[in-house]
Structure formats: structure tokens, C-alpha cells
């Protein structure tokens, strides 16, 4: 997959924050999707024994949710643990994984945040801008903002607010289970992002893209121990 935007990765904390502010201006918050035949999920897991991390990309057929391609990459951690700057830690190995995929996706779902980020530039935004591809942030937990708990039925949602701005939706993907935190990554509207997360979550709380990528990184971690 071809990068459309590039930058240095050997940055200190302040340089990384400044770059986030700059690149956030490139995020497109409206739908600019091609017909989606394949959708990718990405995930990263860290070893507790050493400085290794595992990044994975899982490609699913959008209609059937059949897994059609997977890539796993093992790397050493190259950026410190700093809240709000996870993309600088996780994107380099994710990018290496994308270099090896055989099927190009038209949409990427990230296990993390997009606009629902203090500087409106979470991992999903960063990845989307780099490849200029539609991306969605779908986090298990909240990073920024406040919300009222949505109704218990699947498909119910409430806005995730930060300083009178809607930065995402808190979406119930299954009846009575904890919601997920959906936000724009790039080239997609919030409404369409939520529609896709529901489509990708027919049975479980998390979208199949995330579940499949998570299974791959878990298997990879076992091999590193």
C-alpha cells in the first residue's frame, strides 16, 4: 500500500505533538469512500517479557466478513510510552505490515481513537492521512470527552463531547454490552463510521476487523515468549 504523506519518525515528545497539530489540518471529516469490497483491521500488542511488539493487519471481505489476508510483523519498541502519542509508537510496525498485504482495503478500522483525541489526531487519523484512505477509530475505552450512557439496545448511541464539540459517538454494538467509542479517522463521516462498525459487529461487542487482528497479535506474542 502506497504512502501519500511521509514524515520523520525520530521525534521527541514536543516535535511529535507539533506534527499532530499540523497533520490534523489534513483530516477529512466527510464521506470520500470508494465502494468498499475489503476492510482492514489493525492491532498492536506488547510483550511483557521484553521490548518486542507485534503488529497485525487483517483483511476481511466487507460483505461476508470472511478473512482473506493477514500479515504479522514483530518489531522492537522505538518510541516511549506517552499517552496521546501512541501512533508514533505503533504506526511504524503497522506500516511495515501494510507493505506486505496482497489485497488492498478500501477502509481501515483501528483499535484506537481518531478525532476522539486531545489534539483531534489519534492513530486512526494518523494512519488515514498517511495513506489517504478512509479510516475509523473504534476504541474499547475513552481517551477524551464526556458522554451520557446510551440506551441498552444495539445501535443506540450518544455523542462523545469535548468542550461543546462532538468528537465521536458512544455506540452500543450488542444489546446490554459495554459500548465502543467510534470516531472519524479520515475521509468518512461519523454517521457512516457508526454504520460500518455496526455492520462489522454482527455478533460480538468489537468489530470483526478488530477481533481478527487481535487474535493474530495474541498468537504472535506467544511465539516471542
TrEMBL record:
Organism: Paenibacillus lactis 154
Name by which UniProt lists this protein: Endonuclease V
Function: DNA repair enzyme involved in the repair of deaminated bases. Selectively cleaves double-stranded DNA at the second phosphodiester bond 3' to a deoxyinosine leaving behind the intact lesion on the nicked DNA.
This protein's record includes keyword ATP-binding: no
The family this protein is said to belong to: Belongs to the endonuclease V family.
Compartments it resides in: Cytoplasm
Record Pfam families: Endonuclease_5
Binding site for Mg(2+): 43, 111
Gene Ontology molecular function terms on file: deoxyribonuclease V activity; magnesium ion binding; RNA endonuclease activity producing 5'-phosphomonoesters, hydrolytic mechanism; single-stranded RNA binding
Lineage: superkingdom: Bacteria
Lineage: Bacteria, Bacillati, Bacillota, Bacilli, Bacillales
Keywords recorded for this protein, A-Z: Cytoplasm, DNA damage, DNA repair, Endonuclease, Hydrolase, Magnesium, Metal-binding, Nuclease
Chief localisation class: cytoplasm
Cofactor(s) recorded in Swiss-Prot or TrEMBL: Mg(2+)
Amino acid at each position: 500500500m502506497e504512502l501519500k504523506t511521509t514524515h520523520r519518525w525520530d521525534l521527541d515528545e514536543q516535535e511529535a505533538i507539533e506534527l499532530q497539530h499540523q497533520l490534523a489540518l489534513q483530516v477529512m471529516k466527510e464521506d470520500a469512500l470508494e465502494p468498499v469490497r475489503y476492510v482492514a483491521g489493525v492491532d498492536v500488542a506488547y510483550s511483557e517479557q521484553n521490548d518486542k511488539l507485534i503488529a497485525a493487519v487483517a483483511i476481511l471481505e466487507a460483505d461476508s466478513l470472511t478473512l482473506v489476508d493477514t500479515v504479522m510483523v514483530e518489531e522492537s519498541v522505538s518510541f516511549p510510552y506517552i499517552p496521546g502519542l501512541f501512533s508514533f509508537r505503533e504506526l511504524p510496525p503497522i506500516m511495515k505490515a501494510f507493505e506486505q498485504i496482497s489485497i488492498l482495503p478500501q477502509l481501515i478500522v483501528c483499535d484506537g481513537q481518531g478525532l476522539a483525541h486531545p489534539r483531534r489526531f489519534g492513530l486512526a487519523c494518523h494512519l488515514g492521512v498517511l495513506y489517504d484512505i478512509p479510516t475509523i477509530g473504534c476504541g474499547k475505552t475513552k481517551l477524551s470527552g464526556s458522554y451520557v450512557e446510551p440506551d441498552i439496545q444495539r445501535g443506540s448511541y450518544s455523542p462523545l463531547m469535548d468542550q461543546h464539540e462532538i468528537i465521536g459517538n458512544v455506540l452500543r454494538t450488542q444489546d446490554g454490552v459495554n459500548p465502543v467509542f467510534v470516531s472519524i479517522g479520515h475521509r468518512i463521516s461519523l454517521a457512516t463510521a457508526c454504520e460500518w462498525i455496526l455492520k462489522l459487529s454482527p455478533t460480538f461487542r468489537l468489530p470483526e476487523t478488530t477481533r481478527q487482528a487481535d487474535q493474530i497479535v495474541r498468537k504472535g506474542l506467544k511465539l516471542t515468549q
